[in-house]
Amino acid sequence: MTRRNRPSSGAHSGAPFTGAFAPEPDDDEPKSKSQRKRDMHALQALGVELEALPKDRLARVPMPEPLAEAIHEARRITSHEGKRRQMQYVGRVMRGLDDDEVDAIRRALEGFKGTSKAETARLHLIERWREMLLRDDDALTRFLAEHPEVDVQALRNLIRGARKEQQLGKPPRHFRELFQAIKTALDAKDGQQPAAGANGIPAGNADDNDQPDQEP
């Protein structure tokens, strides 16, 4: 009588391993073509963001020297075709970075975006204060209550001068200086060191504001 072979268990059965005997996943498994393409486009977009940064922010982004040189070269090129080719080169350089280097660049860019949102909100606050001060005399009382260090007379002069400029259609010199005075006062309250006088009026402008009714 023919004896039927039984499949053996374990490694000889051909059955998948389970539990503690399951093999570790292969982290080095090649990426799909579509995933590699998405990663390439993401790195290219990062390069575009870097090239568009203001000079002071670009200097604060941690990056290898070859990438920094490629970005600076792209910023110097003015022709459309030349810049396009250079940005392609930037993308190739970025594809050679390791994950930690790319993550550091991404964190720096995200930090700048958060800072930009805060700066935008602050500018809107300054603009709202300026609108209220020009529209409502009671707003000055509220502003001085929050910022008692401000030179009251200098601020009044700026407000009067800005109102007259609006009425007569004159250049908005006092209007702009009022914005700077409000900004200085807000910076002082927040503990920032303003580059202006402690009275809340930009340095060098106080004398100009003593006679607000004169032509700017």
TrEMBL record:
Biased composition (Acidic residues): 207-216
Family: Belongs to the DarP family.
Function statement: Member of a network of 50S ribosomal subunit biogenesis factors which assembles along the 30S-50S interface, preventing incorrect 23S rRNA structures from forming. Promotes peptidyl transferase center (PTC) maturation.
UniProt GO BP: assembly of large subunit precursor of preribosome
Protein's name in the database: Dual-action ribosomal maturation protein DarP
Annotated GO MF terms: ribosome binding; rRNA binding
Transmembrane residue ranges: none
Subcellular location: Cytoplasm
UniProt entry tagged with the keyword rRNA-binding: yes
Keywords per UniProt: Cytoplasm, Ribosome biogenesis, RNA-binding, rRNA-binding
UniProt feature, compositional bias: Low complexity: 194-206
UniProt key word Methyltransferase: no
GO cellular component annotations of the record: cytosol
Disordered: annotated span: 1-40, 186-216
